[in-house]
């Protein structure tokens, strides 16, 4: 079974979102997503300063077997991306909610956060996609 | 992440295909099971890349029991195979020898690629692909009648490939030291048969090792003995990146019924001498050679970041283009590599452009294999 921490929010496209105390959010891909993708070999992330739009693609993850777009969960400005993933993409497999984080956004519209799934709703989504 | 991609990857939820005798063992070892040519097979047991490195640096094993083992028996078996196969079984002079060959249709297209073993004067064994089983058996069976050769599929046999620099030593440790005497001196592409057990020095990884054909009922026990001897279970994911690094073709990707072996990097497997051996498809190959083979298979190395994938377009200048037939990430080289079918004018060392998900990316044309016996072949 995949790990779905209860303190995070989620998108239907399998990103996780963590609200930080400074008002920014941290984004990565879920345990379910990394498990399906398999060994990551390349992560292309949006650089700081880039404006992203909720639901629009803003990066790419590639595993040995597939490539997949990363969608921004919220609109806003990227203020940091995880440079360590360039040399250690396997962090996404080994610790997707920790060292495998991808980028941090300063949201422009707090309402975007309300539209995200909670852990229970995401778990139901994962269960429905697995059958 | 793209929902479409996720949906595509979840292709196994309710699928139930054929299962090898080792299926339960794979599940117990935590394998991720996927459909492969109608078979429920292990893709990996945790990390495909770690399994890949195990084979390059130590020893790994693959359940390849889904592959089709067929015995061809009859006094005219050799005569039959000289017509059936593009390579010449007359190269098999001593018992146990193995030969890689394509089996062609009348248009010179590849029906399948296979390994044929010479076991006795009236007994040859073919190991061919699982996904092409039905058409292969129909084709071989129909052609065999004229030669009174009896073709018997051997589904009661399992097959385990043990590969890597330490594969042979670990196999002796697992299955008994007496194996060292019987199989230890075998050169590549040879085999020894002991009752229903066949040990061959063939493989699909570019490493030393054995392919072991054995009774299905002995498969679980044998697998466990190998596991206890420190041979790592490896899935089809690692098998694919290993064979790509080793520059070995995959049927259905690098060649099929619409391509000749000459356009697929397999000219070395076509025996044109003696000229009077009129194997199936020969006429088309002779014509293609006379007119000039229009396309070739080459190796590509991606110069920057990213991963080359099957079916990506290769721009070869002057309105000509080619296509990647097998593209992936090479764990040994830590960069993307590919086999691609391109116009014959393309030369080794050329720099071409691949359409990488809408972005142009520079690739270098190289000789393959990319990796052999654990070492990079790139200059």
Oligomer: heterodimer
Top-tier CATH class of the largest domain in chain B: Alpha Beta
Instruction: Using the 3D structure, state the CATH architecture of the largest domain in chain B.
Output: 2-Layer Sandwich
CATH topology of chain A: OB fold (Dihydrolipoamide Acetyltransferase, E2P)
* Tertiary shape of chain B: globular
Q: Structural class of the secondary elements of chain B?
A: alpha+beta
Q: Based on DSSP secondary structure assignment, what is the total number of beta strands of chain A?
A: 9
Q: Record the strand order, biggest sheet of chain A.
A: 1-2-3-9-8-5
Number of domains of chain B: 2
Please indicate the percent range of residues of chain B in DSSP E strands (runs of 2 or more). Answer: 25-35%
Q: Name the CATH homologous superfamily of chain A.
A: RNA polymerase II/Efflux pump adaptor protein, barrel-sandwich hybrid domain
Structural class of chain A: alpha+beta
The tally of domains of chain A stands at: 1
Helix segment tally of chain A:
4
CATH fold name of the largest domain in chain B? Gyrase A, domain 2
Integer average pLDDT of chain B: 95
Radius of gyration of chain A, in Å, reads 14 Å
> In whole angstroms, how far apart are the ends of chain A?
14 Å
Number of strands of chain B: 21
What best-fitting shape of chain A do the alpha-carbon axes yield?
globular
What does this structure look like?
The complex is a heterodimer of chains A (131) and B (379). Chain A has helices spanning 31-37, 91-94, 111-114, 119-129, and strands at residues 9-10, 15-19, 25-29, 40-44, 51-52, 57-63, 67-71, 76-81, 103-107. Chain A has 131 residues and is of the alpha+beta class. Chain A has one domain (9-107): RNA polymerase II/Efflux pump adaptor protein, barrel-sandwich hybrid domain (OB fold (Dihydrolipoamide Acetyltransferase, E2P)). The longest helix of chain A has 11 residues, at 119-129. Chain A is globular and about 35 Å long. Chain A starts with 8 loop residues before the first strand and ends with a helix. Chain B has 379 residues and is α+β, with helices and mostly antiparallel strands. Chain B is built from ten helices and 21 strands. A six-stranded mixed beta sheet of chain B has the order 10-11-12-9-3-13. The longest helix of chain B is centred in the middle third of the chain and has 12 residues, at 133-144. Chain B is globular and about 60 Å long. The model of chain B has no long low-confidence stretch (mean pLDDT 95). The interface between A and B is medium-sized, with 31 and 27 residues.
């Amino acid at each position: 079974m995949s790990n779905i921490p209860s303190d995070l929010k989620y998108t239907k496209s399998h990103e996780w979102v963590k609200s930080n105390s400074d008002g920014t959010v941290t984004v990565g891909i879920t345990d379910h997503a990394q498990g399906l993708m398999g060994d990551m070999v390349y992560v292309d992330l949006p650089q700081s300063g880039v404006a992203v739009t909720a639901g629009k693609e803003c990066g790419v993850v590639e595993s040995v077997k597939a490539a997949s777009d990363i969608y921004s969960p919220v609109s806003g400005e990227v203020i940091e991306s995880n440079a360590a993933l360039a040399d250690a993409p396997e962090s996404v497999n080994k610790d997707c909610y920790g060292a495998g984080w991808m980028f941090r956004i300063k949201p422009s519209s707090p309402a975007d956060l309300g539209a995200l799934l909670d852990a229970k709703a995401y778990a139901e989504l994962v269960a429905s996609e697995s059958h | 992440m793209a929902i479409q991609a996720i949906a595509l990857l979840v292709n196994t939820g309710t699928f139930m295909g054929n299962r090898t005798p080792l299926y339960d063992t794979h599940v117990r070892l935590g394998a991720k099971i996927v459909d492969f040519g109608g078979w429920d097979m292990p893709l990996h047991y945790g990390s495909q890349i770690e399994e890949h490195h195990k084979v390059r640096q130590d020893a790994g094993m693959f359940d390849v029991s889904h592959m089709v083992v067929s015995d061809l028996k009859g006094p005219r078996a050799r005569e039959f195979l000289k017509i059936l196969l593009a390579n010449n079984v007359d190269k098999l002079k001593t018992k146990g020898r193995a030969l890689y060959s394509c089996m062609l249709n009348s248009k010179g297209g590849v029906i399948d690629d296979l390994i044929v073993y010479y076991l006795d004067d009236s007994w040859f064994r073919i190991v061919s692909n699982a996904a092409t089983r039905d058409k292969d058996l129909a084709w071989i069976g129909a052609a065999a009648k004229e030669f009174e050769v009896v073709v018997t599929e051997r589904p009661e046999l399992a097959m385990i490939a043990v590969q890597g620099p330490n594969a042979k030593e670990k196999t002796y440790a697992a299955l008994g030291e007496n194996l060292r005497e019987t199989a230890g001196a075998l050169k590549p592409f040879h085999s020894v048969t002991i009752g229903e057990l066949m040990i061959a020095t063939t493989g699909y990884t570019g490493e030393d090792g054995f392919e072991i054909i054995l009774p299905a009922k002995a498969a679980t026990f044998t697998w466990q003995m190998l596991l206890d001897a420190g041979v790592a279970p490896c899935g089809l994911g690692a098998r694919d990146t290993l064979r790509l690094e080793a520059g070995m073709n995959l049927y259905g990707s690098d060649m099929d019924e619409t391509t000749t072996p000459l356009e697929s990097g397999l000219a070395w497997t076509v025996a044109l001498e003696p000229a009077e051996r009129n194997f199936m498809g020969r006429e088309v190959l002779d014509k293609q050679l006379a007119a000039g083979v229009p396309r070739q298979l080459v190796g590509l190395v991606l110069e920057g970041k990213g991963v080359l994938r099957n079916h990506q377009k290769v721009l070869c200048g002057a309105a000509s283009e080619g296509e990647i037939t097998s593209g992936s990430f090479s764990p040994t080289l830590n960069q993307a590599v590919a086999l691609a079918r391109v116009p014959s004018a393309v030369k080794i060392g050329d720099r071409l452009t691949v359409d990488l998900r809408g972005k142009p990316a520079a690739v270098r044309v190289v000789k393959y294999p990319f990796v052999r016996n654990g070492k990079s072949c790139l200059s």
